[in-house]
Design a protein that fits this description.
By secondary structure, this protein is of the alpha/beta class. It is 41% helix and 20% strand.
Length: 383
């Protein structure tokens, strides 16, 4: 079986990019022919199964400046599909590149599978508070996913959302079991000297956030909560450490007096170390369909604080952290105070989080990913 997967994001620091790269690495290791196809000027992994096609021009995505929207050369997409002749085409993102690839593949009569990675309607509603914009975005997303034989969700929560908001019947959807690299993210990578690299003190507790430093991740709320927490608890020695890119990094100087620090993009071994060397993970986003970083944090032995809206809550068992009411600043502040004043609570989480994550091995997720494609291909053959 030969799969062509098209994505608008691959060289970006986000969960979708990491997931797609994981699928490519697993496919290569297991002898599965999975071609990952994108169009970007950003650095991407150099592998024979990754294809970077030319584009006509690019612009930063509105409200998400770190992600480029490119107008692809459609002829290049068509030529590659003619050359590779895949058994099935997977469209991973609904951006201009994914949309063009979907249209071309559909005209060439390739079976289509898609993934619902990002809840764009909810994301835009959070940004604008406009129900009209959400309705229009729902319509656009519904049109995008209509031709797909099957749509993969990253969490059970979004099966209902896709059915209710986009009209994608549950009969043509399934949940892809979440997974992460349990060797790359592990408590054995603990190394407190990593904080010296970022000019931070070793002796203070570290509350970690990893992800985009933008409004769609609820960063203004997180900074508000942290500032109020520090003001109300001057005796608790703790730092908020934020790894990632985004416009709110401009607040770095303003937040330093409140012991909040922006590390910028962190990857590779350094990322593994800051996870394993932190005390607690915090993630107040309300629009994530899954939350890849939640799995990375738990695999590294961290307890997590997440919102009760969106997919991340589905990854959190009772002994691995707390699910807190979305945007309830008082509740988040109180939980931080309770946990950071009793360090033993955060340390005890490591005993269950790693065990809990054994069911989220990336190899299992990959096998399910392949099985979905095989099943849809068999169904197409029998039609």
């Amino acid at each position: 079986m030969k799969i062509c997967l098209f994505t608008d994001t691959l060289g970006d620091l986000n969960g979708v990019s990491r997931f797609i790269q994981d699928m490519g690495e697993q496919a290569h290791a297991h002898g599965v022919e999975l071609h990952i196809i994108t169009s970007t000027s950003k650095p991407i992994p150099q592998h024979s199964y990754i294809h970077n096609l030319p584009y006509l021009f690019k612009i930063p995505m509105p409200f998400y400046q770190e992600l480029d929207l490119v107008l692809p050369k459609k002829r290049a997409i068509k030529q590659l599909l003619q050359e590779l002749q895949p058994d099935i085409v997977h469209i991973s993102t609904p951006g201009p590149f994914g949309w063009s690839a979907k249209t071309i593949a559909q005209k060439m009569n390739f079976p289509l599978i898609g993934t619902y990675h990002t809840d764009f309607p909810a994301y835009l509603y959070d940004l604008t508070q406009s129900k009209w914009i959400k309705r229009q975005t729902d319509k656009i997303m519904a049109k995008f996913y209509r031709p797909f034989k099957h749509v993969i969700s990253r969490s059970q929560h979004y099966i209902h959302v896709m059915d209710n908001d986009l009209g994608i019947a549950p009969s043509r959807t399934s949940v892809l079991p979440a997974g992460t690299d349990l060797q790359k993210f592990h408590s054995r990578h603990q190394d407190y000297t990593i904080w010296q690299h970022f000019h931070l003190a070793n002796g203070r507790q570290k509350v970690l956030y990893v992800g985009r430093i933008n409004i769609e991740k609820n960063i203004p709320f997180l900074l508000e909560v942290w500032q109020s927490f520090i003001e109300a608890n001057p005796g608790i020695e703790a730092d908020l450490v934020m790894a990632g890119e985004g416009r709110y990094r401009k607040l770095a100087d303003k937040m330093k007096p409140y012991h909040a620090y922006f590390l910028g993009p962190v990857t590779g071994e350094a990322l593994s170390k800051i996870y394993a060397s932190s005390d607690l993970f915090i993630f107040p986003s309300t629009t994530d369909t899954l939350g890849q970083v939640i799995m990375e944090a738990q695999a590294s032995g961290l307890g997590c604080l997440v919102s009760d809206q969106g997919g991340p809550q589905s990854l959190l068992p009772d002994q691995a952290g707390f699910i807190i009411a979305a945007n309830d600043a008082e509740a988040w502040q109180k939980k931080l105070a309770d946990l950071l004043s009793e360090q033993v609570s955060t340390h005890n989480w490591a005993q269950c989080t790693r065990q809990h994550m054994q069911q989220y091995d990336i190899q299992d997720s990959f096998q399910h990913f392949i099985n979905i494609h095989k099943a849809q291909l068999q169904e197409t053959s029998s039609d």
